[in-house]
Fold this protein.
Amino acid sequence: MAFWLIQALNGISFGMLLFLLAAGLSLIYGLMKVLNLTHGSFYLLGGYIGVAVVRTTGSFVLATLAGAFAIAVVGVVMERFFLRRFHLQELPQALLTFGFLFIFSDLAMVIWGSDPETMPKPALFDHSVQLGGFYYPSYRLFIIAFGLAVAAFLWWLQEGTRVGAMVRASVDNEEVARALGINVSLLFSLVFALGAFLAALGGVMGGPIVGVYPGADFDVLLLGFVVVIIGGLGSLKGALFGGLAVGLLDNFGKVFFPELALFTVFAPMALILAWRPSGLFGHE
Amino acid sequence: MNTEPRQRNNAACGLAAILILGMLALPYFLSSYYLGLAIEMMIFALFAMSLDLLVGYAGMASLGHAAYFGVAAYTTGLLALRLGWNVWLALPAGVLMAALTAALFGLLALRTRGSYFLMITLALSQVAWGIAFGWRTLTGGDDGLPDVPRPALNLPLHLSWSLAGSTAFYYFVLVAITVATLLLIRIVISPFGFALRGIRESEARMLALGYNVWRYKFVAFVLAAVFAGFAGCLYVYYNRFVSPDYLHVARSAEVLLMVILGGAGTLIGPAVGAAVIVLLQNLISAYTERWLLILGIVYVFVALFAPNGLVGVFLEYRASRIKRHVKRLNS
């Protein structure tokens, strides 16, 4: 019993990291129809910056903020100066974002080398707690709580605030939203920055359990894609549900079928694709 | 500029003849290193042209085209290495496997379009990559399959022509690529090819005209995989090696870059794009380890400055020259 609970909690905590990544991917696609292939880089660079800040200052909170805000700025620059020219042109967008994926990946290699880095856990969560009959690392429980808090915040942002209403209006009909005086291009930058922020947050928070290593950008990008394919692009609910599903599938797959680990994630994805091409919560 | 279609055709045929004669003579001028480079260029040219059938003609941007290249390469490599099958059996088996994979993936991917199609082709190709990477007992996992033998062509009457030498293999690839390219040209100028262009421009209109759009897209998807698979089979014989890198997303993106860099919607464009990228990679890798960085910058530059590719740049240049010429005549 304890075994199942521990593995389930491992899967859920990893799923929360995937949710952070996929929420941004999904928000960006929902508003501006950009499939951001650089999203994995945001995760990786956030992680690296976090590690660097924690090494120099020793503060986990500072590392999280520094990583997330720095990458949000990178996101705004990318959106303003590059992606904006190719509104609704998916081919140049794909080339551009894939190019940045390569550029960032190689720059990270130049700056941080090819050895994997591990982020130390924050002191507050550097121990295990007793849950019924077994001990479990409190940091993973913290990630689960944090992920749920972010989900609640994003839901409130989208459904309960003026900015959220503007975003929803622009998703529904961009031209009418512009005509009504909504500054859609500012919203584009804001949402892109928020997406980058969330991905980098995932990178820093995931540092202590997944590690920060060259190639992580591709790995998480692909898992993020599976999440949004299952959940549906553009849906927050889909990102949360898909993140948890992929986290659990990935974890149990690695435990039971180590040789075909990826298959346990991709096979259900193919089934869902055959059944609902736009994902469980997507609509198109 | 009185280029009647017939004259233009003649000019194109003349150029092609010169090109082929030049290619035939290459082994007399080049060292085996550069001959290898030429082989690689030809193989990737075919790979890029196969993707162009989807991207340029049918308007379906796939980010998972390396899957078919790699599946065929693994199939041919395994059959040649483990079972000792000769090229006449192993190569068609590889191509067939690519076609079957595409038929399966197509059933799933063709239910979507646009960015979803891009993402789903990417994810599906990653399934193939996952199998190549994870199933160590069959594929050798990360280490790949080394020492795939170069084939010998066993012709009738007990004639055997070994392709182990680089000159012999070069001619083998040249013939194979020429035949494949002629087939592609035939497909593109057939009514089927024009129907694909119609689907690219307006699916709704083609539906209204009574075309079974899904079936056309499905056939195009499988055909593109067949040619990509053929390129993959040639590549595994050339490299004598296959690894999961063959089907990685990075390769799928690279071949898409070749198509766009050269100019989607023409066959010559992607071939030129492939030649440029292969050449750049070999030249730059000799001087610096930062090839990925430079490749990334090439992606960004192509998107920003040459969205219609080199062919587009050439056509714009010609159009502006004609305009200037007309202006001079008028004044």
In short: The first strand of chain A starts at residue 128 and ends at 131. The mean pLDDT of chain A is 91. The two ends of chain A are 42 Å apart (CA to CA).
